[in-house]
Amino acid sequence: MAEPMTDARVSPLAHLAERMRAAAVTGPRGVTLTELPFRTMVNLRADPASEAAERLAKTLGARLPDHCGHTTASGRHTLFWLGPDEWLVLSRADGAALTAELREALGPDPGSVVDVSAHRTTLELGGPAARQVLEKGCPLDLHPRAFGPGRAVPTTVGQVAVLLWQVDDRPVYRLFPRSSFADHLGRWLIDAMAEFRGPQVS
């Protein structure tokens, strides 16, 4: 009898998993770092004023964000603005199936639908000190008056290009670096968390 198939994929930061766990800090100055690998991500290109864009939005069940920093969401999908005619779809759906649906929605119109799930990984940074960690290497103003839940922008963190998304106000951030730069970013974040590992009050 054939052996059941197993997922043999290795995430870009699997080798740093233990170091990320060890770097976690609890308490009022706490911060944690975790990789969320193998998430479905699809890059879209289309004229935002076209019927194709309307069809893509209908397929996703959410309008395509129309300004830098804006996100929209519906069900399993979250959409991020990358440029005037470019978006990233983060989804809990199967990548191949979603890509096929979106290519059908695009039809013969100018544009593209590309599964980029293997090109990026996801790092989740959370806790009371998460913003202070990011501020060590991010040029953005991350104060709540300028950057809050639901905002997502292309930027750099530790000199690595990422899409930075603030998920909620705890705060929790998700960073989407290219897989080839994930090791550098992971190590930079671990080092940036070090100052918060002072004596913890039990």
Automatic annotation (TrEMBL):
Q: Name one Pfam family in it.
A: SoxG
This chain belongs to the protein called: Sarcosine oxidase subunit gamma family protein
Species per Swiss-Prot/TrEMBL record: Streptomyces dubilierae
